[in-house]
Design brief:
The protein contains 17 helices and 21 strands. The chain is an alpha+beta fold and 443 residues long. Helix 15 links the parallel strand 19 and strand 20.
Amino acid sequence: MTVAVAAVDFGASSIRVCRVELGGGAPALSVVHRYAHAPIVDAGRLLRWDWPRLVAEMEKGLAVALEAGPVASIGLDTWGVDYGLLDGRGELVAPPVSYRDHRTARYESVVDRLGGAEALYRVTGVQLQPFNTVFQVAAHDRDELRRARQLLMLPELLVHHLSGEAVAERSSAGTAGLVDIRSGEWSAALAEAVGLDPEVLPPILAAGCRVGSWQGVPVHLVGGHDTASAVVAMGADPGAGSAFVSSGTWSIVGREQAEPDLSAAALDANFTNEIGALGGVRFLKNLAGAWLVERCRQTWGDPSIADLMAAAATVDGPERVLDVADHRFLNPDDMLATVTADLGLPADAPPPVVVRGIVESQAAGTAAVLDQLGGVTDVHVFGGAQSALYRRLLSDRTGLPVCAGPVEATALGNALVQGIALGVYDDLADARRHLAVPRRVIR
């Protein structure tokens, strides 16, 4: 059975629409439309996504995908935690606010109001980050909340736009910090505690469910959270000791496991338990990723990333490392000044030296998380921000085989879940067996 599907992948700095041929061998992925974007500051000084433009670019990409031939399904994923509020007419109350907005700066007071970090972790299993949906809702404009009749996470906001259906998908809902991780359902108590009417939260469905159609093409839920989709495509045959690094705006480091870890040790280490696209848990940490270089590039006049990485690979000198888990790198006013100060460099340090310090820091931060995980035998690195320099430095630090996975892992995992829903593959293991065997860096 051979089919084509459309995988819509919204990243926090670019969106991609891909046409993916499934069946008869390894999936064949083509990016048919790409659009770079960034949040914009509105009149009220809030950092919002340019949602109408992003939706228009998605539709443009879907039209191109359909022009190339029949498509059996559409699947949509985005970054986690952000959401949109719909009014009684099914229209957005206002464009979604970006998780990088500073409105959640005092999130720790909300943690105290909700009973403290330990109590919150026991319910949700989600690491404490200032941008978690629960903290965004607590800081949300009260008038907008009163007008809301639905709260949809961004992947399902796209699903609603295409199909008219208002639902939630497990992996994207799980990023909110509003889901009881044991029951898999929304926590009415947490919603009410931050001023949200639980009735606005839609039913949570599993990936693979069909939810309407667009222009006659079925729309299926996939791992709505982009990391959940990316991990689906982490490798052809990951083992029990395999860890992953999803390399994008964030470096997301973790492993797959059957059950959540809600222990005091996991809380103290600030690990998060994210629901897998097809079951299980992704036990992981978020580290600052490509966002650091991207923001510095803006100050440097946007030189090529490839050129920067090539030059950084030749840099000699003392190792310089900053803490990529530090919340100060979420969205500082001057990223370059913050980065160079933490690296002990002058503000006018040559860009390759700064980039080398950033990549060294990412490798060091990743190695520390892998050490905390324990029992790691190999590492699968995938996503558009991976580099040969990072993989080499990580292998040098850990002594582990480091596998170079697909650049478009998120769209590929999105497509594989659609393939399972359509009957092209029997299950996750079968879908993964069709992936290309990744290249390895062995120390």
